[in-house]
Design brief:
Alpha-Beta Plaits, 361 residues, two-stranded antiparallel ribbon, 5-stranded mixed beta sheet
């Protein structure tokens, strides 16, 4: 297992050139290794063809190793160009020396996606590479119709070589395609994550992190739409901090913001599994109790009111205590969302007139 880990580590090693795409460099390394291995297999298959064939394959084996080593030092655009030139030269020499019936010239088309996906290559160069690949493949096929093959080969060698070439071409195209698929998928994931983050930020109150008014209104309308089919009650409560202006006047607006954030934390924890809290505006909050009728929500609010009353908020050297008044209304399907919120708001003001620090239902 350590052998494969060492290979993986070697392939993914950083290069000395700055501001370089590591992924593109790794891709060129893999393709160079495949071409080097291919020349070794050719040397074995064509061993009977004499010393000249072995020298030919040895030269290209060493050149591919050179390209591989160059990826650890030179920029990826340079090594990509090297790989393209080496492959083109090898195809021409191989087809002229042996035969074009092995379909090796088709390997030239692996250079088109390799070059086209590079963002730093100009469009004219990409178009030129595509045209040259087409001309080269067609030209080799036509020229060799009139070319007498100097090396006679058996049928088994030809079949083996054709199969090997098709496998190698397919593998290289798969590797290039997978590389760009992963690159695209990674970019797509970042876009989706960023979009979700923007959506969350757009629906969140900047100070408290709770849902803002717009987000809560969307949530309420969604629950109202589901109500006829689910037929499950939910309740709406509006609350605000008693004498909040006094907190700001006594301790400063920063202290007031601190109290709001601490209350938001209490709401988040308390409403977890029960519903959703939101900052409705200023020192007002709106709480939605999912699948809970008014009686059950009233009991929950009594606990919440008591928890807030006995909480102490330590801001710098000051201990700040606050109370809150709640107005509660069970959702009325026939009245609608806005009317249900208005009734909860009326009950909040009833609580203010009754002495504050209470729940009115």
């Amino acid at each position: 297992m350590s052998f494969f880990e060492d290979i993986h580590s070697l392939l993914n090693q950083e290069i000395t050139a700055e501001n370089e795409s590591k992924e593109m460099t790794v891709l060129v390394r893999i393709l160079s290794i495949i071409d080097a291995i291919l020349t070794v297999l050719y040397a074995i298959i064509f061993a009977h063809c004499g010393i000249h064939a072995l020298i030919l394959f040895l030269i290209f084996f060493l050149i591919n190793l050179g390209v591989l080593l160059a990826t650890y030092k030179y920029p990826s655009y340079a090594t990509t160009t090297m790989h393209c030139l080496v492959l083109a030269c090898f195809i021409v020499v191989f087809c002229v020396f042996f035969d074009s019936r092995f379909n090796l010239q088709l390997a030239i088309f692996t250079l088109i996606p390799l070059v086209y996906y590079r963002v730093d290559f100009p469009r004219w160069l990409k178009a030129l590479v595509a045209v040259l690949c087409c001309l080269m493949s067609g030209g080799i096929g036509i020229l060799l119709l009139y070319h007498n093959v100097s090396v006679p080969l058996s049928r088994s060698v030809m079949i083996t070589t054709i199969i090997l070439n098709m496998i190698v071409i397919t593998v290289k195209l798969l590797i290039i395609s997978r590389y760009y698929y992963l690159k695209f998928a990674a970019g797509e994931s970042k876009i989706v994550a960023y979009s979700k983050k923007l959506e969350q930020l757009a629906g969140a109150d900047a100070l408290t992190g709770l849902s803002n008014r717009r987000s809560m209104e969307d949530h309420l309308h969604m629950m109202a739409e589901k109500y006829p089919s689910l037929n499950q009650s939910f309740s709406i409560a509006i609350c605000d901090i008693d004498f909040f202006k006094k907190v700001n006047d006594t301790y400063g607006h920063d202290a007031g913001d601190y109290v709001l954030t601490q209350l938001a934390t209490i709401f988040k924890n308390f409403m977890n599994g029960k519903g959703k809290p939101a900052r409705w505006g200023g020192e007002e909050f709106l709480l939605v109790f999912d699948q809970m009728n008014g009686d059950d929500a009233f009991l929950e609010l009594a606990k919440l009111r008591n928890q807030i009353e006995h909480s102490e908020f330590q801001y710098k050297s000051n201990t700040i205590c606050v109370t809150m008044t709640f107005g509660l209304e069970e959702y009325d399907y026939y009245a609608g969302i806005q009317e249900s919120i208005a009734k909860a708001d009326e009950k909040l003001y009833q609580g203010k007139h009754q002495g504050r620090n209470c729940v009115v239902y």
